[in-house]
Specification:
This protein has helices at residues 2-34, 48-63, 80-92, 111-117, 155-177, 182-190, 197-202, 213-220, 248-256, 259-278, 284-300, 307-322, 331-345, 359-385; strands spanning 37-42, 68-73, 97-101, 107-109, 121-124, 129-131, 194-196, 208-209, 224-227, 230-233, 241-243, 399-405, 410-415, 418-423, 433-440, 443-448. The strands form four sheets. The chain has a six-stranded parallel sheet with strand order 8-5-3-2-1-11, sandwiched between helices. Strands 12-13-14-16-15 form a five-stranded mixed β-barrel. Strands 4-6-7 form a three-stranded mixed sheet. Helices cover 49% and strands 17% of the residues. Helix 2 (48-63) packs antiparallel against helix 9 (248-256), helix 3 (80-92) packs parallel to helix 4 and helix 10 packs antiparallel against helix 11 (284-300). Strand 15 and strand 16 form a beta hairpin. By secondary structure, it is of the alpha/beta class.
Length: 450
């Protein structure tokens, strides 16, 4: 009886293991057949950290044999080099890449427009727009060429024309490869045209409009994509979705890669280090200054920095602080102000507005530094003009009482609780009050009260 129970007790676990194994195999097979949909979000300017985030996740989607990767995009544009890295990865990776301009009110402007054009499937949410991909003018005046002045093109005009022609050809080649509107792609670069989602579909700039991610997955289900010598038939309806947000390091670098933040960090760092060197032992300014300088140069590693701009900003700091030591009648402050403005303008070697320091940051900081150091200089000069209030020099003009006096004009006086050797006019009498005229070699020169 016991053996029967024992045999019966072992039968259930074996059946359970077999059942679970079959379920696991079926689920695994289903997952392999269906594949995950990887979704990443880009809501920032296109910069090296953002470019790395996108390309690394496309590579990861390839390794994990994902069904597709969807880039939810909302960007004002960004750096040309980062954009081209992303586009190359989009067009050559053996995995379908979907770019979805989302949410409502989002945009795919400038570099974002070309990233959208390069996608295997380009989609937009209602209320979004795409375009305005013209390269920003290089140098003062934007580098434009006026009609009737073609024979007087400057070097800047020529460079701008080259950049525009290159960007235009690049946009057309991408649109042609993806079977999209080549004429619109060229106009987006040359004329900065921008269109809403409905018009983008009508003009074959993007493939479809989707209200949400679920709507997008339903609409692209069954679509066939040919790339990298392979054919993909998307099975996205009901497929599992995996969100891949930026990790902490990428988020930090992306935040620091904001030119305005990098610029402010550098200025704070320079100020902190100066105050620590000028007042050793303060500690806190040195610590904060060192951290800010390191973070600033960490950010510079992800930005196209012009180190001539860095040198001008450092020079401006030296000139501002030198004003405290040298009386230049404000010339050093003016030089520091000009150096700071010029260094700020040329700090980053790119015409892209999203990768430049904003005038809304440059001017207030420059004015703050100029006013602050001008005020400090005025206070220092005011202090220097004041009569001394402590020490021997402060005794000039003070009253003293004659203690004893000789016919040769020398004697002793009493002042500040002390007896001093003194010299002055003959005929002074003990107890008479005199005024201290000067102090030299521990001897007072006095005069009678007038």
């Amino acid at each position: 009886m016991g053996r029967h129970k024992k045999s019966y007790g072992n039968a259930w676990p074996e059946s359970a293991v077999t059942f679970l194994t079959i379920v696991f195999i079926l689920l695994s097979a289903g997952k392999i057949l269906a594949g995950d949909i990887i979704v990443i979000d880009v809501k920032d300017a296109i910069s090296p950290p953002v470019g790395s985030y996108i390309t690394e996740n496309i590579d990861r989607a390839v390794r994990e044999k994902a069904e597709a990767i969807i880039i939810r995009l909302d960007t004002p544009g960004g750096l040309d080099t980062s954009m081209r890295d992303i586009i190359q990865k989009e067009m050559n990776a053996p995995v379908p890449v979907v770019v979805y301009v989302y949410p409502k009110g989002a945009r795919a402007a400038s570099a974002g427009a070309l990233i959208c054009l390069a996608a295997d499937i380009a989609a937009m949410a209602p209320g979004t727009n795409i375009g305005a991909a013209h390269p920003v003018g290089i140098g003062p005046g934007g580098g434009g060429i006026e009609k009737g002045d073609k024979d007087k093109k400057t070097e800047t005009d020529t460079m701008t024309e080259k950049v525009t022609n290159d960007a235009s050809a690049y946009a057309r080649s991408i649109a042609k490869e993806r079977g999209r509107n080549e004429k619109w792609a060229e106009d987006a670069v040359r004329k900065s045209v921008s269109i809403p989602a409905t018009e983008a579909v009508e003009k074959h700039v993007v493939d479809l409009i989707a209200d949400s991610l679920d709507d997008l997955l339903t609409k692209i289900d069954g679509k066939t994509i040919k790339k990298a010598g392979m054919t993909f038939t998307l099975k996205t309806k009901g497929a599992p979705v995996t969100e891949r947000p930026m990790n902490f390091r990428s988020r930090l670098l992306s935040t620091l890669a904001n030119p305005n933040i990098a610029y402010i960090l550098m200025l704070i760092g320079l100020a902190g280090i100066y105050f620590e060197l000028s007042s050793p032992g303060a500690i806190l300014p040195g610590i904060l200054g060192g951290i800010c300088i390191i973070l600033a140069f960490f950010a510079f590693s992800a930005l196209p920095v012009n180190y001539a701009g860095v040198a001008l900003i450092i020079l401006s700091g030296i000139l501002f602080f030198a004003e405290l030591k040298v009386q230049s009648m404000g010339l050093l402050t003016v030089g520091g102000f000009i150096s700071l403005i010029l260094g700020s303008i040329i700090l980053f070697r790119t015409p892209e507005m999203s990768a430049q320091v904003s005038w809304g940051v440059i001017l207030p900081i420059a004015v703050f530094f100029a006013v602050s150091f001008s005020a400090l200089v005025w206070l220092v000069l005011k202090t220097h003009r004041k009569n001394p209030v402590t020490g021997i020099a402060a005794m000039t003009g003070e009253k003293a009482q004659v203690y004893e006096w000789h016919d040769d004009g020398t004697g002793k006086v009493f002042t500040h609780g002390e007896y001093w050797n003194a010299k002055g006019p003959a005929g002074l009498k003990p107890g008479e009050t005199v005024i201290i005229e000067s102090v030299r070699d521990m001897e007072l020169t006095v005069k009678t009260r007038e």
